[in-house]
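FAQ: What does the model actually see?

It sees only this:
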Amino acid sequence: MPGTVWRRSEQRGRAISLIVLAITQRYRSGQLEPSGVLVVKPSRCCRMRDFVINQFARRPKRNGFSLVEMMVVLMVMGLLAGVAVLTLPGDERKLRGEAERFAARTLAARDEAIIGARPISVVVSEQGYYFERRSDGRWQALPGRGFDLMPWDNATTVSAGRQRIVFDSLGLASSDAAVRLGRGDQALVVQIRRDGKVTLDAG
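And it is asked to produce this:
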């Protein structure tokens, strides 16, 4: 009987020693406050989650579109326009492409007249078109890619005769002009107005 009591006392003493050792280790590691309250520190994952939630909560609401969203919309619109052009019949697609190139180069020449502050002219004939600038009292070829002589396609007919349209330093045209391009049973008219606007209309 005395031996049994002694063994139980020894077991209790060991248990108490283990508890004291565990409490001491937790106190040294900072998980236990001096008051004896166990402190559970948040893990790194929890801290990251709280940081992300706070960032989204602080972010102001946007009413407009971002630059990336606008670029995506423009890209989609460009793709749709390309698909629409490709679905056109052969003659109409080629005619529209040639008319749009002529209109774009004419607008570029008008802008060149404004930037260079000197007259720029576009000369149109049944064979093709080219651009010149006024320098030293005479017309000279306008340098630059896209401003040299550009012949019309063999299947394209032009009913405009030979005419010269001059853009001044303000971008205003010397006169109204209409260049009618035809291909097969399709026709388009490039209108050059006195105010410098260039439009593409159905023939």
